[in-house]
Amino acid sequence: MLIIKPIQTKELQAEFCAKCGIEFHEKALAYAAHVDGVFTGICQFTLNDEFGLIENLVSPEGIDDFEALFIMGRQTMNFIDLCGVHQAQMLPNAASERMILALGFKKEQDGVYRIDMTGFFEGGSCQSKH
Questions:
Q1: What pLDDT sits at residue 127?
Q2: What is the pLDDT, as a whole number, of residue 121?
Q3: How far apart are the C-alpha atoms of 16 and 120, rounded to whole Å?
């Protein structure tokens, strides 16, 4: 079973970052994904008045669970949106390009991936339009 939860301590966040070979960002919020009790990935992100920035959405070496990371990415996006911030960004090295595009981000001229989440989680994007 997939479980995604906020990481409660900076020590645990640093440990998960090390397992994934990424830099620990002390000021970042973070989620961890576990599948059947096995650590599967981390998402570090920051938030300001203008946008949320997903800094990392990655798994430890040897683990390839696209679905778990995708769900964690969408959960992060939803959290950002629920905070009243409807813009999100990802840098090109935050995740695989396949993941970034699957989440709905579009690459802009400056190389940053962006998405406007206004109404994104209100059901309209998942309902068929006849």
A1: 45
A2: 87
A3: 30
Q: Average pLDDT per run of 10 along the chain, which is 130 residues long?
A: 97 98 97 97 97 97 96 97 96 94 96 93 55
In 3D, which of 63, 64, 78 has the Cα closest to residue 31?
A: 78
* CA contacts within 13 A on the Cβ side of 110: 6
d(CA 122, CA 119): 5
Q: Rounded to whole angstroms, what are the CA distances from 65 to 7, 10, 11, 23, 69?
A: 19, 24, 24, 21, 7
d(CA 33, CA 72): 7
Q: Which structure tokens are listed for 39? A: 């650590």
Burial class (CB in 10 A: 0-12, 13-18, 19+), 26: exposed
Rounded CA gap, 8 and 97, in Å? 29
Predicted structure pTM score: 0.90
Distance CA 93, CA 96 (A): 7
